[in-house]
Amino acid sequence: MVTAPSRSWDVNEALEVLSNERRRIVLEELLERRRPVPVAELVDSVVAAESNDRGRPNDLRTEVVLSLHHNHLPKLDRSKIIDHDTERGLIAVREAMYAVEPYLELSRNDGRRG
Can you give the pTM of this predicted structure? Predict the structure, then answer.
């Protein structure tokens, strides 16, 4: 059972984490599924969300894999929003997710994502 966050989040800190569309897609997927998700499935979700705007899905997939692996997942893990089990290739929500969830909800309602 996930409990309330053990620390409060500054608005700027939450907005920094949510400033990237790929991170928001990952977090939305994790919230929707409510279980640990394989990294490959999160890659598929990001590619599906972005492929409407871009051609060559294989190139996009490679770009997404690299950006999630080297940038976005480590940032979310350091922020204690996710737990990245690199041995099993699974991503799970941590308690800090629920502190940033209201800001994520605001980003959903801003009309930029469909």
Answer: 0.81
